[in-house]
Amino acid sequence: KCDGKTRTRWEKLDFEPTEALKHTLEGNCWYFGIGKEPNYFNAALAYKKADALSYLEGTNNLGNCFFYGNGVPKDYSAAIECYTRAANMEHMSATYNLAYCYEYGYGVEKDINLAVTYYIKAAKQGLLKAQRRLGEYYLNQDIDKAIYWYEKAVEAGDAQSKMFLKMIQKVEKK
After folding, report:
1. pLDDT per residue over 138-168, tens digit each?
2. What is the torsional sign of CA 146, 80, 48, 20?
3. Whole-angstrom Cα distance, residue 118 to residue 95?
């Protein structure tokens, strides 16, 4: 549906996506303007269909629509609901998004301890930006934990965390 090429790619992979995945991919095409003009309203509709089928990527993306007010009215509480549903099913980006909301108080009472809990959960699932965020968080509190999380992010290929580790090493040498 995006640009005609998507179907060809599935055929080459001998892959037929589920209805929920189709809705999510269609939402992504609308959201990012792949093969068509961007249209956040249509993206949100497609993500709602995926969410109704319990497809976690669609649920997380719908949460993003609510968070930013793209295609739907901005509604942090609705975003939190989406992120929580997906995070409870181990979706790492939704877990990170939920952590972010708790860290800054979007749609929930600010709770840094709960934010850190969610960041750790996402980081342990392998989400690089959660690993880096934990490195940043612990930098002025527990240098060993900061180094641990930065090293995890570096192992995943994060150049920014590598830079932070080098800075820490320079400071420690002084």
Report:
1. 998 999 999 999 999 999 999 999 999 999 9
2. positive
3. 6
